[in-house]
Specification:
The chain has 382 residues and is α/β, with parallel strands linked by helices. Helix content is 37%, strand content 15%. The chain is built from 14 helices and 15 strands. The strands form five sheets. Strands 9-7-11-13-15 form a five-stranded mixed sheet, sandwiched between helices. Helix 1 runs antiparallel to helix 8, helix 7 packs antiparallel against helix 8 and helix 8 runs parallel beside helix 13. The protein is globular, with a radius of gyration of 21 Å.
Length: 382
């Protein structure tokens, strides 16, 4: 059994014991959140304050009407991903009436507004909202009788996705639905990990250019957040050799000296109008491909062997804070080891994710190759 397989088994087995008993009409449960805190929760939980608006997507995986659960949320999803917000508004018009409790940062999160919407629980995840370091916010909410629960899809995404979904399942009394997604997620992660462990292919050197095209070159992740996907897919992250922080700047001279085998730019709709790699919901493939080609044509990057020889790819940056992050691992694995993973089909995985789990389908461009013109669209729904 590989290390990932063993870790996944222990995580899921531990949470399965907690998920075994069905929820009664009213009960009190004790759970351990991702921060290691023991929290007592009265169920049923019907009103949630989110610390980060984009965690609506996590609720969507296990609840058919996630908007109905929102007592309040910050505006980060509304401001930074108007396409996704619009799709949810079309399916769930009540989203427009959900009170705002902040603009999408720790500094703008309002405890007063959060208390005013009378939530049953607050769910925080770091990122754009309160984190485990936000002790004043947590203390004030708990003193007012509002339990606070932490989940995580960003700091340690590949370790914390499954237990975070299990925690949400416990909160909502939807343990079975949470377990179904955990099984789906774990099977796909294990397929990649097991095959890498058995074949032991040589890892290609990879430069992941975060927020590609935005500002001076070159922002890159180490082994945390989105950088964790490189190792999981069988690559060697050249930034991790020198960075001591989760993200940092690599100078162009270092990148040229390493001359990586593969270039992966990350982008999103947040880069629209900023000269960067635009990808994600509602974005056409050719628009992303053109933006990627423009970024790597810039001085310095254009001199890389990976760029000259066509090993240039783009990846949606928001996989770094999304429980669908297994898709990023599948895509990267195919790019790094195309023969080993020839049978892995991320488009099929995305279609199954949309059909089985999401009330609002992920539709847009989430991965791209600069020189490819015949890719199938990344879309689907139920």
């Amino acid at each position: 059994m590989t290390r990932f397989a063993l870790s996944a088994f222990l995580i899921v087995a531990g949470f399965t014991m907690l998920l075994a008993a069905p929820a009664r009409s009213e009960d009190t449960i004790s759970l351990t959140d991702i921060a290691g805190r023991t929290v007592s929760i009265k169920r049923p939980v019907k009103r949630i304050v989110l610390g980060e608006g984009r965690q609506l997507l996590a609720l969507s995986l296990i609840h058919p009407d996630p908007v109905s659960l929102l007592a309040g949320w910050p505006a980060d999803l509304v401001r930074q991903d108007a396409t996704t917000y619009g799709l949810y508004r079309e399916r769930f018009p009540g989203i427009e009436k959900v009170p705002l409790v902040g603009q999408g940062s720790v500094e703008t999160f309002s405890i007063e507004q959060a208390l005013a919407v009378d939530p049953d629980v607050a769910v925080f995840s770091g990122g754009y909202g309160p984190s485990v370091q936000s002790t004043d916010i947590v203390t004030r909410l708990e003193n007012a009788g509002i339990p606070v629960v932490f989940i995580d899809f960003m700091a340690r995404p590949l370790e914390n996705t499954a237990p975070s979904l299990a925690i949400l399942g416990q909160l909502l009394g939807r343990e079975r639905e949470a377990q179904a997604y955990i099984d789906f997620y774990t099977e796909r992660r294990q397929r990649i990990a097991n095959r890498l462990a058995e074949a032991k292919p040589t890892p290609p050197d990879v430069f992941m250019h975060a927020h590609a095209g935005l500002g001076a070159c070159c922002n890159a992740p180490a082994r945390a957040t989105i950088g964790a996907f490189i190792d999981a897919a069988g690559g060697h992250n050249i930034a991790a050799d020198v960075l001591t922080t989760p993200f940092g700047q690599l100078n162009l001279e270092y990148i040229l000296s390493k001359d990586p085998d593969i270039y992966v730019g990350t982008g999103g709709v947040h880069l629209a109008g900023k000269g960067g790699l635009v990808m994600g919901p509602g974005i056409e493939k050719q628009a992303s491909r053109d933006a990627l080609a423009e970024v790597v044509s810039r001085p310095g990057l254009a001199d890389l062997s990976a760029v000259r020889e066509g090993r240039v790819y783009g990846l949606w940056h928001i996989f770094n804070n999304n429980p669908a992050n297994f898709l990023a691992v599948e895509v990267l694995a195919k790019w790094f080891h195309p023969e080993l993973f020839a049978d892995v089909d991320p488009d099929a995985s995305l279609s199954e994710l949309n059909e089985r789990f999401l009330p609002v389908a992920m539709q847009g461009t989430y991965w791209i190759r600069r020189d490819e013109t015949d890719e199938a669209p990344h879309a689907g729904g139920r």
